[in-house]
Amino acid sequence: MRMSTLFLRTLREDPAEAEVASHKLLVRAGYIRRAAPGIYSWLPLGLKVLAKIEAVVRDEMDAIGAQEVHFPALLPREPYEATGRWTDYGPNVFRLKDRKEADYLLAPTHEEMFTLLVRDLYSSYKDLPAMLYQVQTKYRDEARPRAGLIRGREFIMKDSYSFDIDEAGLDASYLKHREAYRRIFDRLGLDYVIVAAEAGAMGGSRSEEFLHPCEIGEDTFVRSAGGYAANVEAVATPVPPEQDASGIGPAHVEDTPDTPTIETLVAAANQIAPRQDQPWTAADTLKNVVVALVSPTGERELLVVGLPGDRQVDAKRLEAAVFPAEVDQTTEADFAAHPELVPGYIGPQVLGPNGAPRGENAGGAVRYLLDPRVVPGTAWVTGANEAGKHVFDLVAGRDFTADGVIDVAEVREGDEAPDGSGPLELARGIEIGHIFALGQKYAKALELSVLDSNGKAVTVTMGSYGLGVTRVLAAIAESTSDEKGLAWPVTVAPAHVHVLATGKDEAVFSTAEQIATELTSTGVEVLYDDRVKVSAGVKFADSELLGVPYALVVGRGLAEGVVEVRHRATGEREELAPADAAPRLRELLSEAGLG
Amino acid sequence: MRMSTLFLRTLREDPAEAEVASHKLLVRAGYIRRAAPGIYSWLPLGLKVLAKIEAVVRDEMDAIGAQEVHFPALLPREPYEATGRWTDYGPNVFRLKDRKEADYLLAPTHEEMFTLLVRDLYSSYKDLPAMLYQVQTKYRDEARPRAGLIRGREFIMKDSYSFDIDEAGLDASYLKHREAYRRIFDRLGLDYVIVAAEAGAMGGSRSEEFLHPCEIGEDTFVRSAGGYAANVEAVATPVPPEQDASGIGPAHVEDTPDTPTIETLVAAANQIAPRQDQPWTAADTLKNVVVALVSPTGERELLVVGLPGDRQVDAKRLEAAVFPAEVDQTTEADFAAHPELVPGYIGPQVLGPNGAPRGENAGGAVRYLLDPRVVPGTAWVTGANEAGKHVFDLVAGRDFTADGVIDVAEVREGDEAPDGSGPLELARGIEIGHIFALGQKYAKALELSVLDSNGKAVTVTMGSYGLGVTRVLAAIAESTSDEKGLAWPVTVAPAHVHVLATGKDEAVFSTAEQIATELTSTGVEVLYDDRVKVSAGVKFADSELLGVPYALVVGRGLAEGVVEVRHRATGEREELAPADAAPRLRELLSEAGLG
């Protein structure tokens, strides 16, 4: 590749909409361009990196015996209807009609089609196990596409699916994928943590995420020194034992003027009704948070979540818990329809089973769910459903109950791990892979069974395994780049060596050309900056922005018989004779694991 | 690849919906599966053939200096609105809205996006010429998807685009693509004819199609011994000289009862008003055909086409001529709205400029267009707009005129070529490539200009070049298959050698395995039929159906030291010693152009 003709223009300015380093740099370095929100075009250098990542993924999939196929992106409604996902995906899926008014979608994932294909071809236990995969363009109509390639609306995924006769077979297929993913990320030089995860829209019994630890990641995960690791959505709060409330007197309402927040309430409680043993804290209050939910079919419902006042509701845990419904902002109209909800002073007495029987008044009593910590026998300070009044000694199980439990309070640094393996620490990460032991959900819905050795029909047990190819590219860019630009590992770089001819000397260009040719002839991928009217400074800046792992600078030093090798990642520089350049670069590439 | 684990099941029966050989065989041989009308899933063997075709295409595109990029399939409305194609494509494009109600389409082709990208990056004449391409999934909501991969709704295309400063540059880029296409089809072993074509939706001054001559092709083309070749839509009928009508008497209406067809009219004319010099023939009658058109925005209009009675209206020429409107069936309602149109007896007197002034009555006069042969001075027998009556000696230009000319009469075997190069012969073909000298249509609409050497802004001149990758695959299957199955050329076959172990003898399997391993180790791609409980007959039939170019049969003969090489395309068989098998196969592959 020659810079003089390469379809590339680097930008000095960050694109206006870009917030994260990978997004800024991939655009500035001419790897991608935005076509629409969350939808990107790939330029020559970007496409080369993408192809290299795809090759590693294919290689490891083939190595575990998975076979590549390719499904359409445009698919009819029916299979997704059969599994309920046509509805469950709500507004997250792009839907359209063809000229005959038949319903189609742009597939966000392909469980249904793989299930149907295997049903179409296979009929006996002897055909199993089977693993199939594709590297394919997927579509999701994200509410908030962000961070460039990290959360896009059109993106490339490798998705694979396993088909087994029983749970033991699924375990083996699941493990093969887990190991293949480890090898893929290892080869790509991408740091990762495997965490327990929620299955979400996918369904199934068990799932794990591969997270690339990274400040800009959307996923929060926890880990303990004892080896526990989970996505924050998957952390189950340990349920404390029930309490004996026999010593607690009857609930009593107190005037607590101007206490719409937990802080003001705690301060007031310690003044009005001080406790003997210790002062009231936020953890003694029961906070009731109103949440608006929209079902996939568009129905709106209010929900109140009751949780200890020292914890916030975690938005992502809430989203996962209410799936397939979506969380929406509450509005004035919501409160107007429920005058029993007095903002700042909401208490359980008007909610769920404690409130008006459902359907009796306009809205019926609002559904009420409790944090797992609010076990029977615990006593709380909480709203009395009247402005300026709170109720004290309101005992769970005695004075109020709920419609059920919801585990959506924030997980905090230092909380005990659910498995008792020590205190949790929190970190953020980018989800780069997600593996699911689906079980029989799809096989049942789409009637995929095979005959076992006794001639009896057995429902097939499935797994599904996703790896975000374009997101992995962004994660690598994010983790390897610096303030000067991209800095690709050799495995995925768009070229191995960036040869720069600087200055105007004919000898510089002919030597650079000669070394570039020599490298190319031995299989080294060279990007050659042969531009004649471009200053050395611009060439250096471009080279650092583009992030090819090694640069060879042929310039002023040539007169003294010296050229320079620059290591992009470390900034290291080596001077050497022109004749030594190609051998030294091949040595460096070989040390970096190439060839 | 081992048949025992390959994700493949061959079918003995043709799929119900399949009409053409390639479609039947690709499904039966387990290369593709139908997911929806005109939408296919790719199975492992199909995907391998596809990858090989794509590699050849990429190789030749790279060789002419085109650079690969990749655009989204899901694109916003705006760029297509700017060029008018959002509307022009009518129902042929899949349209959808995202969750914010913004309009999107699934791109049928990408002129707009490439134009915008080049505008985004380039600004000077020094940046040109540039050629860019992609291999990408395209979408068209075809009214009649048919013939499997030949006319699909989701399909793979290589599309490329050239950007030049002037017409001379465009000529050079166009020629490079033309030559690259020739090399691609030559390498793929696919016979083709280059014909002049209509530009259709694409616009532009000049275009040529690459057609693979084939009975099941949708395109009809003509060629003359003198070298003229054109798609039938692009044939311009030579316009005869105007006639002197001074000797022709006034038009006269005659009773012609029961003559709603040209045949009955000619017979009646020869009875009622016989001509002195020669009998009336169909060529003396003026047939007026009513056509319903629907504009891209859904407006319906009637049109009458007047042409000599010995010619039919050609549906494809009509479609091309009325683009972007679509042709629809006429209905009773159409005729009810225009009582002046008397079926079987329609004449020009009530049409177009001869009819009621537009808008005076309900529908106004119907638009009237004439075949180019109906020049001023020619006299015709035609309908008198009353059942059972025709008018004689109605002279074009004297007694009637039209709103314009439309060249949509059928082209017939033996018609003179427009360039006078001899009589035309007709043939059918599959369109496998289409190259367009677009000119400045897109660059103007999207304001793509660069500064020339004087610093003056110059609109860029473009070309666009399409090659149907999935359609090429089907065309190869169509042209190489026989009644037994597929028969791939070595270049694109999913494997080079199909090793068959037949019988139950252990030695057979170990010898077959050994030869397969030997071949694989020297880079030969082997499909090994290692299935143990499958009869030799089934293995032979599968092998012929799958169409790997060479089969090596290890079976009964092994005891006598003999194995057999079978040539799939010719049916030829060679017996040889097991030790000679691998060298002989390598020799055959090398003769076939491999490696």
TrEMBL record, chains A, B:
<keyword id="KW-0067">ATP-binding</keyword>
<dbReference type="InterPro" id="IPR050062">
    <property type="entry name" value="Pro-tRNA_synthetase"/>
</dbReference>
<dbReference type="GO" id="GO:0004827">
    <property type="term" value="F:proline-tRNA ligase activity"/>
</dbReference>
<dbReference type="GO" id="GO:0005524">
    <property type="term" value="F:ATP binding"/>
</dbReference>
<dbReference type="InterPro" id="IPR004154">
    <property type="entry name" value="Anticodon-bd"/>
</dbReference>
<comment type="subunit">
    <text>Homodimer.</text>
</comment>
<keyword id="KW-0963">Cytoplasm</keyword>
<keyword id="KW-0547">Nucleotide-binding</keyword>
<dbReference type="Pfam" id="PF00587">
    <property type="entry name" value="tRNA-synt_2b"/>
</dbReference>
<keyword id="KW-0030">Aminoacyl-tRNA synthetase</keyword>
<dbReference type="Pfam" id="PF04073">
    <property type="entry name" value="tRNA_edit"/>
</dbReference>
<dbReference type="InterPro" id="IPR036621">
    <property type="entry name" value="Anticodon-bd_dom_sf"/>
</dbReference>
<dbReference type="InterPro" id="IPR023717">
    <property type="entry name" value="Pro-tRNA-Synthase_IIa_type1"/>
</dbReference>
<dbReference type="InterPro" id="IPR002316">
    <property type="entry name" value="Pro-tRNA-ligase_IIa"/>
</dbReference>
<keyword id="KW-0436">Ligase</keyword>
<dbReference type="GO" id="GO:0002161">
    <property type="term" value="F:aminoacyl-tRNA deacylase activity"/>
</dbReference>
<dbReference type="GO" id="GO:0006433">
    <property type="term" value="P:prolyl-tRNA aminoacylation"/>
</dbReference>
<dbReference type="InterPro" id="IPR002314">
    <property type="entry name" value="aa-tRNA-synt_IIb"/>
</dbReference>
<dbReference type="InterPro" id="IPR036754">
    <property type="entry name" value="YbaK/aa-tRNA-synt-asso_dom_sf"/>
</dbReference>
<dbReference type="InterPro" id="IPR007214">
    <property type="entry name" value="YbaK/aa-tRNA-synth-assoc-dom"/>
</dbReference>
<comment type="function">
    <text>Catalyzes the attachment of proline to tRNA(Pro) in a two-step reaction: proline is first activated by ATP to form Pro-AMP and then transferred to the acceptor end of tRNA(Pro). As ProRS can inadvertently accommodate and process non-cognate amino acids such as alanine and cysteine, to avoid such errors it has two additional distinct editing activities against alanine. One activity is designated as 'pretransfer' editing and involves the tRNA(Pro)-independent hydrolysis of activated Ala-AMP.</text>
</comment>
<comment type="similarity">
    <text>Belongs to the class-II aminoacyl-tRNA synthetase family. ProS type 1 subfamily.</text>
</comment>
<dbReference type="InterPro" id="IPR004500">
    <property type="entry name" value="Pro-tRNA-synth_IIa_bac-type"/>
</dbReference>
<keyword id="KW-0648">Protein biosynthesis</keyword>
<dbReference type="InterPro" id="IPR045864">
    <property type="entry name" value="aa-tRNA-synth_II/BPL/LPL"/>
</dbReference>
<dbReference type="InterPro" id="IPR033730">
    <property type="entry name" value="ProRS_core_prok"/>
</dbReference>
<dbReference type="InterPro" id="IPR044140">
    <property type="entry name" value="ProRS_anticodon_short"/>
</dbReference>
<dbReference type="InterPro" id="IPR006195">
    <property type="entry name" value="aa-tRNA-synth_II"/>
</dbReference>
<protein>
    <recommendedName>
        <fullName>Proline--tRNA ligase</fullName>
        <ecNumber>6.1.1.15</ecNumber>
    </recommendedName>
</protein>
<dbReference type="GO" id="GO:0005829">
    <property type="term" value="C:cytosol"/>
</dbReference>
<dbReference type="Pfam" id="PF03129">
    <property type="entry name" value="HGTP_anticodon"/>
</dbReference>
<feature type="domain" description="Aminoacyl-transfer RNA synthetases class-II family profile">
    <location>
        <begin position="33"/>
        <end position="489"/>
    </location>
</feature>
